[in-house]
């Protein structure tokens, strides 16, 4: 499903060049649950941005379902992100004075779907992500951290993306809530979703079925869990 070949990324600041990725290659099959782990400055965030079509590599190739993402234009990258990637972030990125269900409906705003259809799809996604129906009409700032992350997961699922890309999804949560959220990802994996998890915590990475360790811009280890 995903094939990365010899990815490099160089950042330039005046005359100074920093090589964040140094020829990274790997494959991820459809339905895998993969954690990419590494310390600060390892290159994992750069790799996440490339996989999420938020940035393009300096060199190398990135294919998703046979399509070369690394060669897409800005407009094509934007469309690719909207249709192929479901993002889940550490900071939830929810509108604070908007209900849970309306936060999930937002990605459907420009699809031409009716309000009734958008609401039905949002309810389905929220239930699928393990959200209690009694909380659907709560404002997001009235929800707990775990509930907000489940709303964010539901929003990531709403367009039926090829990949769920989760960037430090437990970073703002306590240990108990983190486990609940990671169990949600486990359940999504069991249902056949492809999940790529970016983290610096081994306890979180261990929920995945495969762990890719990156250090100094290179893959240090790639093991089945």
List keywords for this structure.
globular, 6-stranded mixed sheet, 30% strand, 225 residues, Rossmann fold, alpha/beta, 7 helices, 10 strands, single chain, 4-stranded antiparallel sheet
Structure report:
With 225 residues, the chain is an alpha/beta fold. It has a single domain (2-224), classed as Rossmann fold. 32% of the residues lie in helices and 30% in strands. It is built from 7 helices and 10 strands. A 6-stranded mixed sheet has the order 6-7-8-3-9-10, with helices on both faces. Strand 9 and strand 10 (218-224) form a beta hairpin. Helix 4 (115-128) packs across helix 5 and helix 5 packs parallel to helix 6 (175-190). The two termini are 20 Å apart. The model has no long low-confidence stretch (mean pLDDT 92).
In percent, how much strand structure appears in the residues?
25-35%
Shape: globular
What's the main sheet like?
6 strands, mixed
Number of strands: 10
Helix and strand element order:
EEEHEEHEHHHEHEHEE
In short, what is this structure?
The protein is of the alpha/beta class and 225 residues long. The chain has one domain: P-loop containing nucleotide triphosphate hydrolases (Rossmann fold, 3-Layer(aba) Sandwich), CATH 3.40.50.
């Amino acid at each position: 499903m995903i094939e990365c070949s010899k990815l490099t990324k160089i950042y330039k600041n005046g005359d100074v060049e920093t090589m964040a990725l140094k020829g990274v290659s790997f494959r991820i099959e459809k339905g895998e649950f993969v954690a990419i782990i590494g310390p600060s400055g390892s290159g994992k965030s750069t790799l996440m941005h490339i996989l999420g079509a938020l940035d393009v590599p300096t060199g190398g190739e990135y294919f998703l379902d046979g399509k070369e993402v690394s060669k897409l234009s800005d407009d094509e990258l934007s469309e690719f992100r909207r249709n192929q990637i479901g993002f889940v972030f550490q900071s939830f990125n929810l509108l604070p004075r908007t209900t849970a269900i309306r936060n999930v409906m937002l990605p459907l705003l420009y699809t031409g779907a009716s309000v009734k259809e958008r609401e039905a799809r949002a309810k389905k996604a929220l239930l699928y992500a393990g959200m209690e129906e009694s909380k659907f009409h709560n404002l997001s700032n009235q929800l707990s951290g775990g509930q907000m992350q489940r709303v964010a997961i539901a929003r990531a699922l709403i367009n039926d993306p090829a990949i769920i890309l989760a960037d430090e999804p437990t970073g703002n949560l306590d240990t108990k809530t983190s486990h609940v959220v990671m169990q949600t990802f486990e359940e999504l994996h069991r249902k056949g979703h492809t999940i790529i998890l970016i983290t610096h915590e081994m306890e979180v990475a261990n929920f995945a079925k495969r762990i890719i360790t990156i250090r100094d811009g290179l893959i240090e280890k790639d093991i089945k869990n």
